[in-house]
Design goal:
Helix content is 26%, strand content 18%. With 165 residues, the chain is α+β, with helices and mostly antiparallel strands. It has one domain (29-150): HIT-like (HIT family, subunit A, 2-Layer Sandwich). The longest helix has 17 residues, at 82-98. The structure holds zinc ion (2 copies). Belongs to the HINT family.
Length: 165
Amino acid sequence: MAAADTPQTQTGVPKTSNGPAGQYDKKCIFCKIVNNEIGTELLHCDEDISCFRDIRPGAPHHYLVVPTRHIGNCKSLSKEHVPLVKRMVETGKKVLQKNNVTDLSDIRLGFHWPPFCSVAHLHLHVLAPASQMGFTSRLFYRLNSYWFITADQLIELLTLKEETS
Ligand SMILES: [Zn+2]
Ligand SMILES: [Zn+2]
């Protein structure tokens, strides 16, 4: 996020911290995971993005991609978060490829829509192969439902947000 590129920022827009210390929520399980406090294996970790396995896999491959700094759910995002969401998607695909998932057309990438989030820290679900998801996960990560939104849909929504508000 380029600090020089300042759109019409109004009051009420969440401030983003660019400091290396970042935001850390003491009560947040995902903050603990990305800070290596729990011993969960990090499949990817950099200043902005981290990735680890979902503890309850809904498909043979099920990863969670999260911002390394605490950011709340999809509802709290704005247009300025589009690059971050895109990077989360890229990271998810890279981790899949590292784990020998070659068919990137048979995957599901998306977010739970509030209040259907078990953890408040923004997280992208990455599932593959989508065709091997069981009944319950098909329901949990269902396309065009009011509780799950694909990464593409979220990006579209955030892009539109600026024009309407
Ligand atoms: Zn957190
Ligand atoms: Zn979720």
